[in-house]
Amino acid sequence: MDITNRTALVVGGTSGIGRGLARRLADAGSTVVVGGRDTGRVDDLETVTIDVTDPGSVSRARDEVLAEHPDLDLVVTMSGVMLFEDLRDPAHFARSETTIDVNLLGTIRVLDAFTPHLLQQGRGDLITVTSGIAFMPFPLMATYGASKAAVHAYSEALRRHLVGTGIGVTELIPPAVATAGQEQVNPNALPLEGFLDEALGLLTQTPTPDEIVVERAQALRWAERDGTYAELLEQRSRPLSTLPGR
Ligand SMILES: NC(=O)c1ccc[n+]([C@@H]2O[C@H](COP(=O)([O-])OP(=O)(O)OC[C@H]3O[C@@H](n4cnc5c(N)ncnc54)[C@H](OP(=O)(O)O)[C@@H]3O)[C@@H](O)[C@H]2O)c1
Q1: Ligand 1: distance of its center to the CA of 12 in Å?
Q2: In ligand 1, which atom is closest to the CA atom of 57?
Q3: Probe ligand 1: pick from 11, 32, 37, max atoms within 8 Å of CB?
């Protein structure tokens, strides 16, 4: 994928991986808008306010971006929340609802908002964002894993729906990256810039891979194929003992 001459919107680009990716796209020569609820955090890129859980907000943001940038040709659906849940306590359900609303339905709302424009234009790229956890659960984040597995399945289907239209669908599958508080709790999280170096190295290959799987994500992405699934799931279940009453 060429990233030097694009007009891109990174929804969920107001912090973390999305902001880093947006910066890299801009530094490579692309025109970039970042979206999120808290746009006040960004002073070096054009912003648009968008809450992906609110259909009205999504269509307003779409209209605003397309009015300013009718040649928009790259949309990244980066918005996501990562919430811990205790599934023995039914009160976790509120977290399930939020997670599905932002990570899954929010992704679909944004894709639906921009796909007609890209179809009309006859070219463009959509980048969806899942996680290694889509392929290898981390039981403390149960609905998170479910939401990302769903976005993976959805991305696979969307790619087939768009065959022959000139629109590509690429799934970014990060491992733990040192953003969103991961840097405090996970000493193994990859530093953001190192992750971006590797991810962009893969993204800019021709042809663009369907999935961007950096080395650290491969053990999770391919655990089932590699026969390591049961052992890894066991390891990744140990933090459940940190929940109250366990
Ligand atoms: N960090 C990791 O270890 C890791 C690993 C695998 C996958 N991922 C995925 O990578 C993506 C980015 O994660 P991150 O680590 O960079 O987290 P982050 O720093 O918390 O960034 C999350 C982004 O999502 C946006 N967002 C959250 N709720 C939103 C809403 N309702 N409407 C619009 N935007 C919303 C936030 O913007 P506002 O707050 O301004 O709305 C922010 O820009 C997520 O999809 C995450 O699941 C992260």
Answers
A1: 6
A2: 32
A3: 37
Per-residue model confidence as pLDDT tens for the chain (246 residues): 999 999 999 999 999 999 999 999 999 999 999 999 999 999 999 999 999 999 999 999 999 999 999 999 999 999 999 999 999 999 999 999 999 999 999 999 999 999 999 999 999 999 999 999 999 999 999 999 999 999 999 999 999 999 999 999 999 999 999 998 877 778 889 999 999 999 999 999 999 999 999 999 999 999 999 999 999 999 999 999 999 998
Q: What is the dihedral angle through the alpha carbons of 75, 81, 87, 92, rounded to the nearest 10 degrees?
A: -120
Protein residues whose CB sits closer than 6 Å to any atom of ligand 1: 12-18, 36-38, 50-53, 78-82, 102, 129, 131, 174, 176-177, 179-180, 182, 189
DSSP-derived letter for residue 191 is P
Structural domains in the chain plus CATH codes:
7-242 (3.40.50.720)
Contact predicate 166/182, CB 8 Å: no
Residue whose CA lies nearest to ligand 1 atom number 20: 180
